[in-house]
Amino acid sequence: MKVKIFSALSLLVVSLIFSGYNEDAAAHTKIRCASGDSLREIKVQNLYSMMVPQFMAEDTLLNDEASLEYANLDSELYVIVIHESLAEYVRTYREMGEYETSKSPLENYANTQQAFCLNMLGTISELTPLVKGTYNGLETYSFDMRGSPAGIDLKVLYKIRVVQGKEHLYLLLTYTLAFQTDVYEKRMTAMLDSFMEF
C-alpha cells in the first residue's frame, strides 16, 4: 500500500514530460461545474463515479495502481483514483504495528497517505491540515500541498482526498503546476467533490 502513493507522486514527472493520452469514446453525462467547464461522468467498475472536465482524456500511464487516470498534457492537469480493500488495509497495518486503534480506519488511512506524500516531495512550501468532511454521503479527509518532487525544479499543487466507502478506501489525487492554481483549482475541487460510490 505504501507503493501506491509513491507511484502517484513519482510518476508526476513522467506524466508532465512524456505521457500521451487516448480519446475516451464512451458516452458520458454532461454537467456544468463552478468553473463553467462541461464535465462528463466517468463510471469505474460499477464501484464509483467521478465527474471529469471534457478537455481531459484517459491516460493509462499515470499510475499502475489507479482505477481512474485522466490528464490533459497541454493544460498539465491530472487526476487519479486508487481504491483498495478496507479490510485488507486494516489487517495489513495492524500486522505491521502501524495502525492506531484509537482512530477510525479512514483517519489512519488519511495519516498514512499524508505521511507518504510528505516523504515523496523534495521541497514542501505549503501543507494544509487534514480536514474532515462528508461528500455525497461519504466520510472524507482532505489536504492540499505545494512542493517540488525530489530533484525536479517544478512547484506542483496537489489536492488530495481520502474517502471511506462501504468496503473500500479511496485515494483521490489531482495535481497541476502551482503557477496554474488560479486557473485550475476550482476544476480540481469540482472533480474531488463529485466522487460518488455506487
List keywords for this structure.
198 residues, alpha+beta, Protein Transport Mog1p, Chain A, 4-stranded antiparallel beta sheet, 12 strands, globular
- The tally of strands reads 12
How many helix segments?
A: 4
Structure classification = alpha+beta
Residues in helix, %: 25-40%
Estimated radius of gyration: 16 Å
What gap, in angstroms, lies between the N and C termini? 23 Å
Low-confidence stretches: 10-35
Main beta sheet strand tally, sense and closure: 8 strands, antiparallel
Shape category: globular
CATH-defined topology: Protein Transport Mog1p, Chain A
CATH architecture: 3-Layer(aba) Sandwich
CATH class: Alpha Beta
What percentage of amino acids are in beta strands?
35-45%
User: Quick one: CATH superfamily?
Assistant: Mog1/PsbP, alpha/beta/alpha sandwich
**Number of self-contained structural domains:** 1
Task: Describe the protein.
By secondary structure, the chain is an alpha+beta fold. It has a single domain (2-197), classed as Mog1/PsbP, alpha/beta/alpha sandwich (Protein Transport Mog1p, Chain A), CATH 3.40.1000. The protein is 28% helix and 39% strand. It has helices at residues 2-17, 86-95, 105-120, 181-193, and strands at residues 30-32, 38-44, 48-53, 57-58, 68-72, 77-85, 121-127, 131-135, 138-149, 156-164, 168-177, 196-197. Strands 4, 5, 6, 7, 8, 9, 10 and 11 form an 8-stranded antiparallel beta sheet that branches. A 4-stranded antiparallel beta sheet has the order 1-2-3-12. α1 (2-17) packs across α3. The model is unreliable at 10-35 (pLDDT under 50).
